[in-house]
Amino acid sequence: xxxxxxxxxxxxxxxxxxxxxxxxxxxxxxxxxxxxxxxxxxxxxxxxxxxxxxxxxxxxxxxxxxxxxxxxxxxxxxxxxxxxxxxxxxxxxxxxxxxxxxxxxxxxxxxxxxxxxxxxxxxxxxxxxxxxxxxxxxxxxxxxxxxxxxxxxxxxxxxxxxxxxxxxxxxxxxxxxxxxxxxxxxxxxxxxxxxxxxxxxxxxxxxxxxxxxxxxxxxxxxxxxxxxxxxxxxxxxxxxxxxxxxxxxxxxxxxxxxxxxxxxxxxxxx
Length: 270
Description:
Elements: H1 2-29, H2 33-36, H3 50-58, H4 61-92, H5 98-109, H6 117-126, H7 133-137, H8 144-154, H9 159-167, H10 172-183, H11 185-201, H12 204-209, H13 218-229, H14 234-264
């Protein structure tokens, strides 16, 4: 009984560490300016929607939101399709240098993304894709991490099912669509959520490859909002931050029951 009580105390402490900043962001977004700077801090705000109105008007958030939505939806779809097809090939097909190529994929996971910024930028610039959706989306459609997760999960599926599909005359694409993916729904949803969050929160690449406000995304828009409002308008800045966080938090809450099972499924399979 004493051990369980200690466990609960530790869990509550860990939850407070993670949820405390999120609650402070949420409460500050609804606070009036006088409450933000008062001491001792006001933990419960007198709610006001003025900060959201100011944030929305201070920068073209409607355009930022549209750009982020387009990039996230299309980028996530292309990245997941690419990862699924590549993972299926590594899991079920036989071809020369298969192990070497898979080790190359694993090696790509260890390379920091910032290393590829310059070559990607030079390539996009040479193609005339600066300040375009193609320039924002295409360089990031390959995901070594998503490929690795899907491949590891495919290896845990019973081979009898795919063998039966082959006996029935199903080709690889039909087997993938009708047999493998329905059995991989938790992992697929996990990969989609992780990829969508990554696309939505991407900051450095959209900042580099765009040069007009009409092509900026929400994370870059927060930087514009901070420059516009200055260091004093923290209520407005937190309201803008909440506008950026809300869609991904909603998606995570909807899909969370799939995520744990998806992440752990096949993690130890070689």
